């Protein structure tokens, strides 16, 4: 038995040794831009689009998926160094995927920019359905103390920051990078829908009645899907308490992702981009519960149009980075 198995083992060893040079020569993908979306509805392409599909169709339709242990979905990369993945919804799922991807030796993130993107909600006093906002600040909505109305004097805040979370509850994104992104994308033509136009008429706010536009402001990250005028005011209160810009977007991942990226590579190359597919409260004639659970035909409309707007705005920046990488590699180009 031993004499028969030795030639087989020797052949297997020689085959393994022959592949070692090729393995040793495999270089990690040098990532110029990483696009992180949070969910896809079905397939990556060809059906109803979720947050990732327009990005996939534009950048990775021919890409081979790269499986990453610990990540929710594979990573896709093109020859220009643009990579992306669906990270998962919420702080835990998205940040777990991001950490797994960042630590995977298949990728070189030493000079990467990060575009964290997806749909979101907006207060009707600050935005409207279809609008797209770059994040100037990322604020964690959940890290603090809360109590019920009636347990403090009437009119007093119902939230207080918890000590010890100062470094992870608030991130100011690089102002020069955010300003450059706004400059590159501010003139992008946005699409709208008839359903969204009709839905806006339910709100009296000037911002809610306006056509979609590109803006900048604070993105409020909460696993708590807060809703209604009271909690919207609380979110604005938290933004002001932390001396951040006006709260314009409610989402579920960005502050957590910034913490993960920051631990390994810093936060100066992060962009957060969100499009509003809903208001964070009902109209004056609608209860919060009715707005959270709308009857058939009572939804805001404009979901797909907002996805298109997010992609168009974000791609204006991604494409500039790729085309002018010699200017972007060392940092935000000077005007």
Automatic annotation (TrEMBL):
Signal peptide: 1-26
Keyword Signal: yes
This protein's UniProt keywords: Signal
Pfam families named in the record: NUP (PF06516)
Alphabetical GO biological process terms: nucleoside metabolic process; transmembrane transport
Keyword Hydrolase: no
Example GO molecular function: catalytic activity
PANTHER family: PURINE NUCLEOSIDE PERMEASE C285.05-RELATED
Name of this chain's protein: Purine nucleoside permease
Organism for this UniProt entry: Paracoccus zhejiangensis
């Amino acid at each position: 038995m031993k004499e028969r198995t030795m030639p087989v083992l020797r052949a297997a060893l020689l085959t393994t040794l022959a592949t070692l040079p090729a393995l040793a020569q495999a270089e990690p993908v040098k990532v110029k831009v990483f696009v992180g979306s949070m969910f896809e509805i079905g397939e990556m392409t060809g059906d109803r689009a979720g947050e990732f599909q327009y990005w996939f169709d534009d950048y990775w339709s021919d890409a081979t998926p790269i499986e990453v242990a610990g990540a929710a979905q594979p990573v896709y990369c093109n020859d220009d160094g643009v990579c992306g993945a669906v990270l998962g919804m919420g702080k835990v799922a998205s940040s777990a995927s991001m950490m797994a991807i960042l630590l995977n030796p298949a990728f070189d993130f030493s000079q990467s920019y990060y575009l964290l993107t997806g749909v979101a909600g907006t207060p009707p006093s600050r935005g409207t359905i279809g609008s797209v906002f770059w994040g100037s600040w990322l604020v964690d909505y959940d890290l603090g103390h809360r109590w019920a109305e009636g347990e403090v004097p009437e009119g007093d805040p119902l939230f207080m920051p918890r000590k010890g979370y100062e470094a992870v509850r608030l991130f100011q994104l690089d102002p020069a990078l955010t300003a450059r992104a706004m400059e590159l994308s501010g003139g992008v033509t946005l699409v709208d829908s008839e359903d969204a136009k009709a839905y806006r008429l339910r709100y009296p706010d000037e911002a809610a009645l306006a056509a979609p536009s590109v803006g900048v402001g604070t993105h409020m990250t909460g696993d708590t899907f807060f809703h209604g005028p009271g909690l919207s005011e609380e979110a604005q209160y938290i933004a002001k308490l932390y001396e951040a810009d006006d709260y314009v977007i409610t989402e579920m991942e960005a502050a957590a992702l910034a913490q993960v990226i920051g631990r390994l590579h810093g936060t100066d190359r992060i962009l957060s981009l969100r499009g509003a597919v809903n208001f964070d409260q009902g109209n004056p004639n609608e209860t919060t519960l009715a707005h959270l659970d709308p009857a058939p035909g009572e939804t805001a409309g404009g979901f797909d149009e907002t996805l298109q707007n997010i992609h168009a705005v974000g791609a204006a920046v991604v494409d500039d980075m790729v085309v002018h990488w010699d200017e972007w590699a060392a940092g935000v180009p000077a005007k």
